[in-house]
């Protein structure tokens, strides 16, 4: 099936907007770092820490199973935050709450008292809200945004022993099988856009609980290919269990630290410019709606200080995880742009 003219136009608009938003976010990050180096508050304009300080453990919700990319980043931030930013005796307790709708709903409905935060997948949150408003018991734009830690472009992978050596091999095959997590997730959305853009004859099985289950299914032979984040499956690529065939991000999104990704052809180089960077995963740190200003100030400053700290940079290096820290203002701007784009893109891909 070939991608329709309407969807091509939408993907093209998504690409141009995402490039613009990355430039805006990068400029904001440089400015914020400059302010930080001068001793200024990174996100609020108020005195550091505000007038509120936590006195008990902070609950952190991850809407996926343990071991996946969102879980790894959440635990990394939580660990460094607890060690370097929070008062003595205050811990961050990470709770995995799959499936995705249940986890996001829990994040949204927790008390806005400063003791509840979470890591929110975008554009998955808004995609689920659009696709199934009866199930999605949240309003994405009402979350209290604290910042974002990473921007994750997608890759088409096959098993190491797969007969498919190039993306053209996949395009020539009929009856392909793919596997992903919940319908409406960022990975599922990226996979659907890829299938349409490349004209693949493929059926998708939804419902895997996380990246570990998805990649296990690929290696086991339950799927011919998967579409997943560039930073999520690094260990499986480096161990030789899976191979990347096509990078769906832009050159700006190709992490230098991932040496295995350096020579993987891009969608643009294969003639699919509209697919390049069209769906990019954003890992947002959020709290429930209506968090009081003084509490939101503390959380935003603490999250940003954690993500820009030497300790977190060292964690990222050891974990082999790229980081693109944004303060709450830059992260909110990118989130709002994704909401606007997905309100058009998601219905077009569902038709």
Task: Please describe what this structure looks like.
Pfam families: TctC. Belongs to the UPF0065 (bug) family. This is ABC transporter substrate-binding protein. It comes from Mycolicibacterium iranicum (Mycobacterium iranicum). With 351 residues, the protein is an alpha/beta fold. It folds into 2 domains: 163 residues, D-Maltodextrin-Binding Protein, domain 2; 124 residues, D-Maltodextrin-Binding Protein, domain 2, CATH 3.40.190.10. It is built from 11 helices and 10 strands. Strands 2-1-3-10-4 form a 5-stranded mixed beta sheet, with helices on both faces. A 3-stranded antiparallel beta sheet has the order 8-5-9. Strands 6-7 form a two-stranded parallel ribbon. The longest helix has 33 residues.
Using only C-alpha atoms, the radius of gyration works out to 20 Å
Tell me the strand order in the biggest sheet.
Answer: 2-1-3-10-4
Classify the fold: give the CATH topology of the largest domain.
D-Maltodextrin-Binding Protein, domain 2
- What's the CATH C level of the largest domain? Alpha Beta
Which H/E pattern describes the elements? HEHEHEHEEHEHEHEHEEHHH
Organism: Mycolicibacterium iranicum (Mycobacterium iranicum)
Protein name: ABC transporter substrate-binding protein
InterPro entries: BUG (IPR005064), Bug_dom1 (IPR042100)
Pfam families: TctC
Please outline the helices and strands:
Blueprint: H1 5-37, E1 58-62, H2 69-84, E2 92-96, H3 100-109, E3 116-122, H4 124-131, E4 144-152, E5 154-159, H5 167-172, E6 176-179, H6 186-198, E7 202-205, H7 211-220, E8 226-229, H8 234-238, E9 242-247, E10 281-287, H9 293-307, H10 310-319, H11 328-350
Helix pairs in contact: 1-11, 2-9, 2-10, 4-11
């Amino acid at each position: 099936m070939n991608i329709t003219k309407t969807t091509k136009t939408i993907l093209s608009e998504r690409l141009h907007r995402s490039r613009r938003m990355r430039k805006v976010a990068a400029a904001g990050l440089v400015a914020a770092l400059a302010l930080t180096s001068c001793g200024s508050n990174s996100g609020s304009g108020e005195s550091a820490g505000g007038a509120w300080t936590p006195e008990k453990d902070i609950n952190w919700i991850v809407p996926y199973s343990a071991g996946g990319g969102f879980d790894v980043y959440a635990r990394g931030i939580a660990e460094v935050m607890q060690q370097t930013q929070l008062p003595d005796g205050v811990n961050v307790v990470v709770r995995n709450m799959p499936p995705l709708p249940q986890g996001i709903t829990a994040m949204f409905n927790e008390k806005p008292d400063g003791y509840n935060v979470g890591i929110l997948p975008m554009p998955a949150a808004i995609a689920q809200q659009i696709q199934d408003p009866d199930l999605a018991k949240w309003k994405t734009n009402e979350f209290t945004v604290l910042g974002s830690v990473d921007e994750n472009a997608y890759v088409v992978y096959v098993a190491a022993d797969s007969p498919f050596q190039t993306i053209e091999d996949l395009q020539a095959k009929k009856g392909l099988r793919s596997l992903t997590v919940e319908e409406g997730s960022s990975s599922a959305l990226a996979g659907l856009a890829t299938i349409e853009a490349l004209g693949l004859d493929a059926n998708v099985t939804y419902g895997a609980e996380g990246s570990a289950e998805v990649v296990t299914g690929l290696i086991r032979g339950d799927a011919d290919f998967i579409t997943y984040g560039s930073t999520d499956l690094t260990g499986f690529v480096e161990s030789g269990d899976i191979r990347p065939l096509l990078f769906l991000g832009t050159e700006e999104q190709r992490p230098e630290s991932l040496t295995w990704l350096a020579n993987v052809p891009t969608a643009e180089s294969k003639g699919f410019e509209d697919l390049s960077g069209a769906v990019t995963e954003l890992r947002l740190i959020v709290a429930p709606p209506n968090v009081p200003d003084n509490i939101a100030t503390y959380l935003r400053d603490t999250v940003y200080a954690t993500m820009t700290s030497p300790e977190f940079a060292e964690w990222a290096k050891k974990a082999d995880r790229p980081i693109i820290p944004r303060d709450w203002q830059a992260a909110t701007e990118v989130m709002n742009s994704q909401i606007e784009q997905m309100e058009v893109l998601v219905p077009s891909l569902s038709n």
